[in-house]
Design a protein that fits this description.
about 230 residues, mainly alpha, 8 helices
Length: about 230
């Protein structure tokens, strides 16, 4: 009598199902340590101390909120990675100011660009990453049913948050005067506010289109593990 050997997944044990809980937790801690290291680096002799505080404060508040909620609510690893990347972007912008990031100064000078475009990258990320955070919350709490409505509502939420952030920049500018110039990073562009919101909108849509299915698979796996 022949006994057929069960087909074995060639990937390491646990990887096929997204890794063990312990592995994921260690990776999440690694992301937090990475952010902490970059945050410390960014705070050493920044170009403008006020700008540094204003730029990194959202990342610090977000990290504290994630640590506090971690025992009760865990995002997918995809979202945690994206949050870490976004936090690093904020820290780099805080250290150099968005108008003076050296690599993008080189790109500006090398290709004759009109400005340092690091702030544009930052605003795309400002739409890309929070959109996936909002998408995951709405999806897992079953606030919205149907992928089309989910896409539309997440995009609207992200655009509204971007507009609110522009209000915050305006209030900071009024309160601190010229000291907020580096924080605003307009670089002489009268349409800078509109560009910021537009790029956040594009980032929100791109994030959902590019990573939505991947995120959905991770959400399904995480939900199954929580229910199991």
């Amino acid at each position: 009598m022949r006994i057929r050997a069960a087909a074995r997944d060639p990937r390491p044990e646990g990887e096929a199902s997204g890794g063990t809980e312990h592995d994921r937790t260690r990776f999440h801690v690694l992301l937090l340590v990475t952010f902490g290291a970059v945050l410390v680096w960014s705070g050493v002799s920044p170009r403008d101390r006020l700008t540094w505080v204003l730029e990194v404060l959202p990342a610090v508040i977000g990290a504290a909120a994630l640590v506090w909620t971690y025992p009760r609510w865990r995002f997918t690893t995809l979202v945690y990675v994206l949050i870490c990347v976004h936090a690093v972007i904020l820290c780099i912008g805080g250290h150099y100011t968005y108008a003076e990031v050296p690599a993008f100064n080189w790109l500006r000078d090398e290709f004759g660009l009109a400005r340092n475009y690091y702030d544009r990258v930052g605003h795309v990320a400002q739409g890309f990453v929070p959109a996936l955070i909002a998408r995951e919350i709405l999806s897992r709490l079953a606030v919205v049913r149907g992928s089309r409505w989910l896409f539309f509502i997440v995009t609207c939420i992200r655009l509204a948050i971007s507009a609110c952030y522009e209000f915050i920049e305006w209030w900071v500018a009024v309160a601190s005067g010229t000291a907020a110039d580096a924080f605003l990073g307009t670089q002489g562009d009268v349409w800078d506010t509109q560009w910021d919101m537009f790029l956040a909108l594009l980032g929100a849509m791109a994030g959902q289109l590019l990573l939505g299915r991947w995120q959905a698979r991770q959400i399904a796996r995480l939900t199954a593990q929580e229910e199991g």
